[in-house]
Amino acid sequence: MTLLKRRTFLTLAGVAASASLVGTGNAEASVVARPDGNGLLIDLTLCIGCRGCEAACAEANGLPAPVDDPNIDKIRRTTSEVQRVVVNHNDTSKGEVFARQQCMHCVDPACTSACLTKALYKTPEGPVIWRESKCMGCRFCMVACPFDVPKFEFHSAVPRIEKCEMCFARQQKGQKPACVESCPAEAVIVGKRSELLEIARQRIYGTPGKYVSHIYGEREAGGTSVLYISPVPFSELGFRTGLDETPYPENQRNFLTAVPVVLTLWPAFLMALRSSTQSRVVVPPESETGADEEV
User: Can you tell me whether residue 181 is helix, strand or coil?
Assistant: First the structure.
């Protein structure tokens, strides 16, 4: 059996190195540009639980009016197929705190990455919208969303995906989202994400003890366009904590980048390695003694 020649080894090493570089290059090229679009800042110290945002959202989007019973707020933790915004009542370590929930409009959304037809789309302006004409009803977005937001109208003859769109159509006309306009306490404001983060920091550090030192949405799931500040830890409000700070689609892209390397370059590398290390046997004509010689 011949030994692996130095030249062959260097060639194979070069193939392996090229494979790793191909994977790295694709991963870097796939990083999504993240423009500073519009977002919402929700100050939970100001929310009075009036649920005016629920009513305004329903009216603006042609949805049923919210149920009047305030006790339902205690059990609603996500939106539904008939409501894009919900306000929950929470008993916390600092007493009663109201917290509204809706689509977080992730900076790099998992739902848009999972959508095979691009029916869910992250607009350059900031909102994540749903485009009915492109949707095939696969509901992968529901599985992908780390915040459990998109909801499917199972009981409808013509089902839709329901989620907050941050009143994108209204913003296109220069109007504020309906929930922002309707909030009497100004608990929710709209603006560029970078500006909202600065406002949030000013409120947190400008009034020590009023807020926990955490802007929810600044880093969760890679960052979201909907941001929260709160007087209590978000775990007391039923928010999902401990989420990965890397955008969920980024992990998916890194995995998919490795697939072509594994399926194409790596098998070729192994075959070349085998060919270079296997024994080379030559069978010459039989000798006078009838014995074969191994070269």
Answer: helix
For the CA atoms of 134, 140, 141, 147, what is the dihedral angle to 10 degrees? 170
**For residue 286, is it within any domain?**
no
Reading the block at residue 259, the tokens are 């697939």
The whole domain housing 154 covers: 38-246
Q: Residue 34's CB: how many other CB atoms inside 10 A?
A: 13
DSSP secondary structure letter of residue 245: S
Q: Does 3 fall in a domain? A: no
**pTM for the structure as a whole:** 0.74
Residues near 129 by beta carbon (within 8 Å), at least 6 away in sequence: 120, 121, 123, 165, 168
* Residue from 137, 163, 21 nearest 84 by CA: 163
Contact present, 169 and 127 (Cβ < 8 Å): no
Question: Does residue 284 belong to any structural domain of this protein?
Answer: no
**Domain-located, residue 52:** yes
Q: DSSP state, 55? A: H
pLDDT tens digits for range 16-74: 444 444 444 443 333 344 568 999 999 999 999 999 999 999 999 999 998 876 555 45
Q: Residue 99 maps to which CATH number? A: 3.30.70.20
Q: What is the DSSP code string of 195-234? A: HHHHHHHHHHHHSTTTS-S--BTSSGGG-BSEEEE-SS-G
CA atoms within 13 A on the CB side of 126: 26
Domain count, the chain: 2
Instruction: Please tell me the distance from the alpha carbon of residue 158 to that of residue 153, in angstroms, as a whole number.
Output: 8
Verify that 160 and 270 share a domain, yes or no: no
pLDDT of residue 289: 46
